[in-house]
Amino acid sequence: xxxxxxxxxxxxxxxATLSGCASTPAAPFDQLKTANLTAYRLQxxxxxxxTAAATTPGATGFTIPGLPAEVQSWIQQGAAxxxxxxxxxxxxxxxxxxxxxADTTPRFHDFRILSQTQVIxxxxxxxxxxxxxDKDSFDNADARCAPNVFYAEMGLSFTSTAxxxxxxxxxxxxxxxxxxRSFAWxxxxxxxxxxxVKKLSAIVQKIWPQGT
Length: 212
Fold this sequence. Notes:
Elements: H1 2-23, E1 36-42, H2 69-76, E2 107-108, E3 111-119, H3 122-132, E4 154-159, E5 167-172, E6 177-180, H4 194-207
Antiparallel strand pairs: 1-3, 1-4, 2-3, 4-5, 5-6
Helix pairs in contact: 3-4
């Protein structure tokens, strides 16, 4: 009888251990509860900027869109012999065009950042870790975007130890998909199930309450 009790207890312990392992989020999401987490609100699509029209090489009276009339006239007159002062690409005889200003817009993996916040609440981070770290949260059947097309509305970046390369991922509610950007995705699928979208939407409401 004592032997049976011992075996029964061992079996229960084994089941509990296996159950505990099954509920552990997949790496790196198993570290999310205690990690430093930054959440980004992202602009999912940008209308391409208009491309400046090129001038006709060597043409008389050529114009460069966006260039001030005074500078335009100066170049047309040969810049008073100071061709070395003319910005590259604006000389007559070449494919002259206005060079766009450098884009200094803050971005997260090519998506414009609308706002960002540190997620401090450990319970909120744990909820995210459990949701994103569970392979059963994902099923490609509901992914809506074509291959190589992705429109992200949210980004997450977290590290468990200072100095480590951050774990970055993008979330697209319009594509119904989550993709990793700096680590190997741990699940077979990236498309979010309907229940996953519902749970993640509730978490988003807590990260960015209405009106913020």
